[in-house]
Structures are given as C-alpha cells and as structure tokens.
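Researcher: I've got a protein sequence and the SMILES for calcium ion. Could you write out the 3D structure of the bound complex as structure tokens? I'd like something to compare against our soaking experiments later this week.
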Amino acid sequence: MMYAQLSSSSFWLSAVATLALCPQFACAAVEDAIARPNVLFLIADDLNLSLGCYGAAEARTPNLDRLAAEGVRFERAYGQGAVCTPSRNSFMTGMSTRTVGIHDTFVQYQKRNPQATSLGRHFRQNGYQTIAVGKVEHTPQHQDPQAWSLRPDYPRVKSKLAGREEMSDPRMPTRNRVMMQIFADQDKTDDGLRTDQMVEFLEHQREPGKPFFASLGFHGPHLPHQVFQRNLDAIPLDRMPLVREPVDASLFNPIAFSFVPWFPDEMTQRKIIRNYYAAVSQMDEQVGRILEVLEREHLMDNTIIVFIADNGYHLGYRGQWAKHDIYPDVAHLPLIVRYPKVAKAGSVARGLVELLDIFPTLNELAQLPAVPNLDGRSFAKQLQDPLAPGKPAAYIEWPVPRSNIETNINFLPAGHMAPKLPDDLKVFYGKAVYTSEWCYVEFYGTKIRELYRLDQDPQAFRNVIDEHPDIAAAQAALLHAYFPLMSGKR
Ligand SMILES: [Ca+2]
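Model: Sure. Here is the predicted complex with calcium ion in place.
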C-alpha cells in the first residue's frame, strides 16, 4: 500500500496548505483539496480488441484512442466470464465466478451471495454519490439494491430505423444470426439515450460537496449492432480483417463452443465485421460526448476514468460469430484507465490483470477502507509504473450445455471427428488459465486438454500440448488450484 501512504501524506500536506490560505472553511479551494477522486466507469458490451489503440487498423475509435493516449492501456486484461452476467457479477463484486457461484446467465448473485459487497454499494457507503446508467449489472434482478443513489430507468429508443440488415446461417437461422439497425444521423441510438442520461447527471444532478461514482453500461457493440450510416460509410469493407485459419490448425473441438461453426462467403464475413466495427464507432462517439462534458465541467483532472468490456467476441474464429467460450477473442479484453494524478499518460501496461482487480484498484486510488475477502488484487502500481509486474495468471470458465455440443457434432466441418461424450454430464465446463506466454484449457469431466502458445498463436489455433508436457503440467497445476474438482470430477 505504498501508493496509498504516499498519496495520503501529500493529500494532507495539500489540505493543510490550502487551509492556511483560506480561513473560511467553506471556500471552494478547501473542498477541492479534501475531495476524493470521482470515478467514471464505462462498460462496453461484447467488445473485443477492435479498437484503434489496440492495433485494429480499420477501427474508427478516435475517442477511446484519445483516452488511451492520455492514460494507461492494459495490453493483457482478462474477463472472468464469457457472457454478461458472470463477468459483471464478478467485476462488480471483485470476486471470482467460483466465489460468487455464477457461471452462466441464469443465476442471480443476490440470491447466491447476498453478503457480497458491490462496487456501487461500497463507494456509496463511503460518502460517494453513485449512479448507474444502462446495463451495468445485467438486469434489474442482478442489481445490488443498496448500490445506487440514482438509477434512472433504461431509456427506450423511439427513433424510426433508417435501415436494417440481417445475415444468418441457412442451416441454423435462429442460432447463427447477426442483426444490424441503422439510425438516421440526427436520431438517438440506445447508447445515445444512455449518454444523454449521463450528461444530465454530470451537468445537473451532481450533489455539491460529494465525489461521484458514475457507471454507464453501453449497448454497443452487442447485437443488434446499432450504427449510424456515417459509421458504416467510414469503414472500408474491402479491408476487413478476415480470420485465416492456419493450415496446421488443430481440429475443431465441438465441446468448446456453444454454436455450430459457420463459414459464410467472404463478402458476408466482411459485412459482419464491418457492421461490428461500425457499432464500435457508434459507441465510441458517445464516449466522446462524455469526455466533452467532463472537460466543460472541469472534471478531467480529478476523475478516474475506467473503460472496459464485459466480454469479448469472435469475428470468425473457428466459425464463431458469438462469445460463450473461453478462448482469447472472448477472454482478452480492452482496459484503459485515465487518471492524470497517478496514471502515466500514453503508456502501455504489459502485465496480466483481471477485471475482478478493478474493485480493489479503485478502492486503493480513492483511499477507501479495504473490503475483506475480495479475490482481486489492485493494479494501481501498474498505473504509476507500466513495467510493474502483473498477476501470474488470469482465469475464465464457461459451461456449454450438452444439447449444444450434440448439435455441433451434427454439423462438424469435413474431416473433423466427434469425441465420445461421457454419459453422465449435462453441462461441460471449459476452464482456462492464461499466463504471460500460454493459454491452457481443460474441459472438466473429459480428458480433453489444450495448450496454446500465445506469442506465436494469439488466437489459439494450434494445440501444442503434446510438444510441451512439462509446461502443460505446470499450467494444469495452476488451473486445478484455482478451479477445484466439481462433483468429484475434473
Ligand atoms: Ca456482454
């Protein structure tokens, strides 16, 4: 906690100096001197690394790129869940999915773990005005009722769409389907309306004398992709990064994925990726609106801005146009933190972090009382020194129902083999551990093991487990220590 001590002493020196200059305690300078930092927590939905600042050449994300240029971009951040609910329940409580007992979309953490303190509740109980706009927890049922001072209703889009596009797999038209909604340039998307609510808060609803913890969960780039025509026009269809499966890729593993592999023609692939990129741009525009307001309200210096995605998304890897698994496109996420008082502008932190580390990090930066039993670890040191080491490993899990696997087996690509499924398993848990160089995967209850070398194979196509038995054993030990046996089985 060296950072907290240093900051604490400098904070008191600054407060005392200001008091000496200002005998009327109510003056604005004193309020500034004793103010804790505000927090603005921005959460994208289903966003992989398709941002300019993460090297996506054709992405149009000037506002998030600016945020990265003024803050710290984390190169190795991982989410703990493969879809919204487990991931959000994990990072909003600072606890692992194994602790909160949530692995899928259908379990409500308030029922499972009512004692879990949420980020919003903790900041509120420590003197913050708190607000959540849009999809922060997954649904109202997942909300911590004690978390928010303000929780405006989800706004409903009233604009008439300027257009739609839908593409689907003729074999599985309801399962493998991507949809897009096009909005007229002057109209409001879901994210536009949510951003209006955040702007209203920042401009008119802040409580004087209190710091705020404001969170905004965007719709974008989740399906249906919501875009303006200008977003589509700005993205070059002919330059979309199609996934090229290497010739020595391992066989498709039907246990690993929730969806039937779908390899549409190249133009369809380009369009799906272009539409996704356009949806990312639409969301980026809203980030820009919020940054403008922060500047206008003179809040940029004393606000910690955190931008993340809850989970990533496949744009063609293994024929997947979805999430729901534990491979890099889904697990490896954007994380940007801007806080000029601590974070070194324009730097890149290369050590591993997990989303569940955000809770203890914000806690440390705001110097609030520690919360016992959090699973996360503060990455505040990496904000000051991007070369500071990260965690030794990051973990994610996801259960695939047997019925999905049986459907996958019916639609296996040519030359791929169906594994024999154990008779007694209704759900197959994929669990992965990521380390600096490796991704190791097991499917509990089966004998399937996979090892990928991330520096040479970042999307995880080539299972090299037979070539590196010692490394596989070490990774397996990490995984088993973190995710213990389930029902006596691994
Ligand atoms: Ca999501």
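Model: The CA atoms of residues 439 and 477 lie 13 Å apart. The first strand starts at residue 38 and ends at 44.
Researcher: Great, I'll pass this along to the crystallography team.
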